[in-house]
Design goal:
There is one protein chain. The protein has about 400 residues and is of the alpha/beta class. It contains seven helices and 28 strands. About 20% of the residues lie in helices and about 35% in strands. It is elongated and about 95 Å long. It catalyses: adenylyl-molybdopterin + molybdate = Mo-molybdopterin + AMP + H(+).
């Protein structure tokens, strides 16, 4: 590995050094989907709050199996049950409260019914174990249990879990604010006519969506002119407004690449030039604010595939650290069978692959063109195959893949 190229692991360590979760805020449960819990939540109620029936049928005591029983009450969901009279059963519906004195439920399809002068009767089957078809109080959650841990993302099931406790507000970590700056006079926004030598900005919408998917809030999205003073002004303004400043392009060594020099003048360059492909010219650093705090800086390459890969490898864990969400800190890693062959030199390669899940295991199909400018290779990519530096992969070899989840 060349001396001036830093490993990805060193870059992650530098990026996350000193990063702490942001402050908490309280939001209504109705809009808390996808947010990250700032504090653990303790259950105040048992779930379910009472023994109830798992199906439509008849509640009885198991010792009365095989008998004709009088139907002494009818219990629908939401109704209060009465003490079960000896030698009787209760007609009960799914979710209905189990009456005191009953210890099982028989599904209605197994019961023979008849109407007599003194009311309804039901013949019970002979094989009824105690506890059959009951959902016991506290089966899911007991009061005093930790309902959800801090750092957990509120997915639909978690929201339902909170609602089941009667919770209407929840404490979540503030979303990281991100400034997204695009450099290069040749890059223009879609909707404008292209002049000679110009290209449309594909990085901005891609990175905005990824950042929001990771849990961040993009508060600023601007284009920066290829001018040193203008770049300095934009970086300073972005740092004042955001927790993270992300740039695309401008971190290489060309005469019009001003971002690295501006970062060095305004703040600190922690690390530059990584031993990875794609994404070698990637800069990490810090920008000062007027309140003596710092904004984290991530300078992604201008090539769209390099930005895509860099976002997953660096912006995702940085967002996770700011949210206090451990699940975001590291991409899920799995082993797969390479359905391709390749060799690497001084840089670790992150290849875009599609995964095939079969009875024989997981196969990884690499997209034919792995050039950093071929964004189409990212559209159907399920994972990044990690190919270490100075290695050879033959078809059928086992490889590590980072699942893009």
């Amino acid at each position: 590995m060349a001396d001036d190229l830093q490993p990805v692991e060193a870059a992650l360590t530098a990026l996350l050094d000193g990063v702490a979760p942001l402050a908490a805020e309280t939001v209504p449960l109705a809009v808390a989907g996808g947010r990250v819990l700032a504090k653990s939540v303790t259950a105040c109620l048992d779930v379910p709050p009472f023994d109830n029936s798992a199906m439509d049928g008849y509640a009885l005591h198991h010792r009365d199996a095989g008998k004709w029983l009088a139907v002494s009450q009818r219990i629908a969901a939401g109704q209060s049950a009465q003490q079960l009279q000896p030698g009787s059963c209760a007609r009960i519906f799914t979710g209905g409260e189990i009456p005191p004195g009953a210890d099982c439920v028989v599904m209605q399809e197994r019961v023979q019914e008849r109407v007599e002068l003194d009311g309804e009767r039901a013949l019970m089957p002979t094989d009824i174990p105690a506890g059959d078809n009951l959902r016991r109080r506290g089966r899911d959650v007991s009061a005093g249990d930790v309902l959800l841990e801090a750092g957990q993302t509120l997915n639909p099931a978690a929201l339902g879990h909170l609602a089941g406790q009667g919770i209407t507000e929840v404490s979540v970590t503030r979303r990281p604010r991100v400034a997204l700056l695009s450099t290069g006079d040749e890059v223009i926004d879609p909707g404008q006519p292209l002049a000679a030598g110009q290209i449309y900005n594909s990085n901005r919408p891609m990175l905005r969506q990824l950042l929001e998917q990771f849990g961040a809030e993009v508060v600023l999205a601007e284009r920066v002119a290829d001018d040193f003073d203008a770049t300095c002004r934009c970086l300073a303004d972005a740092a004042a407004r955001a927790d993270v400043v992300v740039t695309t392009g401008g971190v290489s060594v060309g005469e019009e690449d001003h971002v690295k020099a501006a970062l060095t003048q305004l703040g600190e360059l922690d690390l530059w030039r990584l031993a990875m492909r794609p994404g070698k010219p990637l800069a990490l650093g810090r920008l000062p604010r007027t309140d003596d705090s710092t904004a984290r800086f991530v300078g992604l390459p201008g090539n769209p595939v390099s930005s895509f890969v860099g976002a997953w490898l660096f912006l995702r864990p940085l967002t996770g650290a700011l949210l206090g969400c451990p699940a975001l800190n590291e991409l899920p890693r799995l082993r797969a069978r390479a359905e391709f062959a390749t060799t690497t030199q001084a840089r670790q390669h992150y290849m875009r692959v599609a995964l095939d899940f079969t009875a024989e295991g997981i196969g990884a199909r690499a997209f034919r063109d792995q050039n950093s400018g071929v964004l189409s290779s990212c559209i159907q990519a399920d994972a990044l195959a990690v190919i270490p530096a100075h290695s050879e992969v033959r078809q059928g070899d086992e490889i590590d893949c980072l699942w893009l989840q």
